[in-house]
Amino acid sequence: KRHKFWETQPVGQFKDLGDASLPEGPIEPPTPLAEVKQEPYNLPSPYEWTTCDLDSEDMCNEVYVLLTNNYVEDDENMFRFNYSKEFLRWALHPPGYYKSWHIGVRVKTSKKLVAFITGVPAKIRARDTVVVMAEINFLCVHKKLRSKRLAPVMIKEVTRRVHLENIWQAAYTAGVVLPTPVSTCQYWHRSLNPKKLIDVGFSRLGARMTMSRTIKLYKLPDHTITPGFRKMELHDVPAVTRLLRNYLKQFVVAPDFDENDVEHWLLPKEDVVDSFLVESPETHEITDFCSFYTLPSSILGNQNYSTLKAAYSYYNVSTKTPWIQLMNDALIVAKRKDFDVFNALDVMHNETFLKELKFGPGDGKLHYYLYNYRIKHVLRPSELGLVLL
Ligand SMILES: CCOC(=O)c1cnc2ccc(OC)cc2c1SCCC#N
Predict the structure, then answer these.
(1) Of all atoms in ligand 1, which is nearest to the CA of residue 188?
(2) Which ligand 1 atom minimizes the distance to the CA of 362?
(3) Which of 220, 277, 386, 389 is catalytic?
(4) Based on the number of CB atoms within 10 Å of its own CB, is 57 exposed (0-12), middle (13-18) or buried (19 or more)?
(5) Residue 175 CB less than 6 A away from ligand 1
(6) Are 345 and 186 spatial neighbours (Cβ–Cβ below 8 Å)?
(7) In the chain, pLDDT over 70 holds for what percent of residues?
(8) Would you tell me how many other CB atoms lie within 10 Å of the CB of residue 1?
(9) pLDDT digit string, tens, across residues 85-143
(10) DSSP state letter for 269
(11) Does any ligand 1 atom lie closer than 6 A to the CB of residue 292?
(12) 389 is catalytic
């Protein structure tokens, strides 16, 4: 009974994969709002729904502690994502967000927060159609409450609350295969602190390689080399929006960012997101852009280290500066900010620089999904212009 739940949902079903007659677009029509279930789904009796207001320091801390102890780990249980409170507030408070989509589950008696799921609204273009979707994220059930079938009812509840706002599509990612991936991407990792990555057991000394030889292999200059390379500032928002919108046009699925979105998602925010651009010294035109977000991970079971400082490639545009040079400058800045590793998915044009900049392929896959929207063919990662946090 694989995917008992997902076979009941409007998502591409494995049995439909070969059926080219099915049209691209919504799988089910919207429901008249009056017919959307008005009351929350029933939880098992010991539990109750709660709405998590991340502007409340206490509630934000409860969410942070739940995720820190119970969120996603890699297959070898070496790392667990450790999203910071500042990052959670950034990720969950974009323009037009709904507090009601930040859903928690508490134990009725103790009031302990034991599960969480979120949505944020986003304009996503699928081929030539812009659709307002919910980006679903941070699904987390306390380790002690796994296999109680809480996740399906939490997914139904966030879906119900999204429907109440007259939104009928969603986007989400998972490390597991569900019906049916829009695209399957691969993580790549560029060591910035090889000694630490070897010590925690993620990397191994190459054959005939000494530690000092390995450190030298990954060494980076102290300074960026592209003339006009600088941090993005508020006044750059219009130009960066133009540059990014034009770049993202080429992908089959991509965000439809406006200036408000760019100001929220791409203006530098300390310990959350870093963004840089190249302003031509001659013409003052903005020709290139790169950005990465800060997502540390707890290191599980290592005596010497407790936290991995990881940078994740976000949105990048190259129109004048070669990709290799632009992204090498991003590595140089990340190293200078003391990141241990720079991670990137093989989406957009990333494959053009991964190998040459000494990224190694990870063993983790990331599957992208759309809810209630059929895309005719599975996309190659290079056709995907969407990075979810
Ligand atoms: C050193 C390279 O690995 C990671 O950076 C890392 C860190 N923390 C994780 C926590 C949960 C986790 O669960 C899949 C993976 C990681 C990974 S590898 C995949 C993310 C990337 N890049």
Answers:
(1) 22
(2) 18
(3) 389
(4) exposed
(5) yes
(6) yes
(7) 100
(8) 5
(9) 999 999 999 999 999 999 999 999 999 999 999 999 999 999 999 999 999 999 999 99
(10) B
(11) no
(12) yes
Q: Return the bridge partners of 105, or none.
A: 49, 115
On whether the pTM is more than 0.95, the answer is yes
Residue 343 in contact with ligand 1 by CB distance below 6 A? yes
Pocket lining: 309 vs ligand 1, CB cutoff 6 Å: no
Query: Cβ contacts of residue 324 below 8 Å, gap of 6+?
Result: 352, 353, 356, 357
**Residues 25, 370 contacting (CB under 8 angstroms):** no
CA 220/CA 365 separation, integer angstroms: 28
Give the chain's length: 389
* Backbone CA torsion sign across 201, 202, 207, 208: negative
Q: Best substitution site from 198, 343, 365 to test ligand 1's pocket, by max atoms within 8 Å of Cβ?
A: 343
**Distance set, CA 57 to CA 37, 63, 64 (Å):** 32, 10, 10
Is 73 touching ligand 1 by the criterion CB < 6 Å?
Answer: yes
For residue 170, the cross-strand partners are: 134, 371
Which tens digits make up the pLDDT trace of 244-256? 999 999 999 999 9
Nearest CA, atom 12, ligand 1: 74
